[in-house]
Amino acid sequence: MKLLRVGVLFVASAITAVSAARAASSPTGAIVFVGTDNNIHYARSASEKPECLTCPHPGTEVRNAGALFPVALASAAEEPRRIDYAWPTFSPDAARIAYSSVSRGPKGESYAVWVYDLARHQATQIYESRTERVVYIRWLPDGKHLSFLLDEPHGLSLMLSEAKEGAPIRIVMTGVPLYFDWASNGDRLVFHTAGADGRGNERVGMLSMSETNQREDKILSSGRIPFKTPCWSPDGTRLAYIANYHAESTIVVADANGEHSRSIVSLPVGDNSLLWSPDSKHIAYATTVVPHDPTFRGIKLVDIDDASSHVVTRDDVAAYFFSPNGRYLAYIAVPEEKPYYIWKIADLKKGEIRDLGRFLSTQEESIAYRFFEQLALSHTIWSNNSDAIVFAGVRLLVEPDRELRQTPPPSVWVMPIDGGEPRQIDAGVLAFYSPAGR
Question: Is 292 contained in some domain?
């Protein structure tokens, strides 16, 4: 089987994206996306025109290093530079959006984290560095603090700060890899890492947090641990992770404190993924065919109470995502020896699967798919009412059998899951919905 690592792919000039039309249903929720201009754009709904949050407009106020000034004046005073924005994420109440930036100018590169207040139309810089690139941002459940990962020469560092100007920033931990989840009250962190240089034993553990310090409380598992992100159930009562006992990997579920653990699924050899269902009663899981390859062989669903599993799909899969109501599982099928992906929707209630169509991914979306288990904790592709998904890429109306040489620009698409006509939002490379219910 040809293993696809779809970045910026190609499409023949004869293939064009279909014209957007209003979908039969009306997906709810705001949308944030990175445009092809590398700016952050925001739409209050799929039917409203997007606005650019990071494009410089005369009179727009920007806070930077404690000073407040009009952008028009700032631009005249500063040296010319190019700024690319990335990885937007909504706060839990959807009132603010955090994102990262890379600024390039005569003095070199600069990396930053920003928070945009949608009501005030104001951007505030939270962090800036000339050496450490921001690779991931996640709000804490309280909506007042931000955590973000920095890519440093010795590995990854997890940082924590209040989402306000001038707030102190602390290092929580370092490691490679570094996957994590916050407890609902923000006083605990569960993590998966292999130490600062990535050469130590992998371990899954828990930290307790205070306002000024943190302490490693316990190690839940150590040794070879073939998965990414440990995570609490949405209701906060249970914790799930993967452990390796005597060369056998299992999904383990414990109480919220990591106590009373029990293995509920034995897993085949390979790298694994898991996601909690929104009702906290099931876990969707999958295993790669080839270790360290991003393609999973099918998806299964396990009942937490009785440990019974059933197959959702046997398709090769790149990523999968629960709908907010828990009824559907959207997944990206990887057809064998084909240069594209296929969006599919599994109706978990009816046991049916619907094909939503072929598409070419952007490089940014492909990175998101590669780390979908971590991003599922901070981002969503689903509309609030679970009737549509959003993504960025090039839709295909025909079935190419090889990589093609020309491509139209990628667009942000809202795709109704009932087979209705997709809506084209704007040109873009990465897109997410606001949290359900907001």
Answer: yes
Q: Are the C-beta atoms of residues 159 and 171 closer than 8 Å to each other?
A: yes
Looking at residue 420, the DSSP 8-state letter turns out to be P
In a domain, 348, yes or no: yes
Residue 20 forms part of a structural domain: no
pLDDT, tens only, 149-202: 999 888 899 999 999 999 999 999 999 999 999 999 999 999 999 876 656 789
Could you tell me the residue range of the domain that residue 248 belongs to?
31-433
DSSP 85: E
Bin 194: left if φ > 0, else alpha if -120 < ψ < 50, else beta.
Answer: alpha
Burial 304-334 (b: 16+ CB within 10 A, else e): beeeebeebbebbbbbbbbbbebbbbbbbbb
CATH number at residue 64: 2.120.10.30
Which regions of the chain are under pLDDT 50?
1-24, 58-77
Q: 130 in a domain, yes or no? A: yes
Q: Using CB atoms within 10 A of its CB, is residue 398 exposed (0-12), middle (13-18) or buried (19+)? A: exposed
Using alpha carbons, select from 238, 182, 203 the residue that is nearest to residue 377: 182
Query: 431: which 2 tokens?
Result: 């897109």
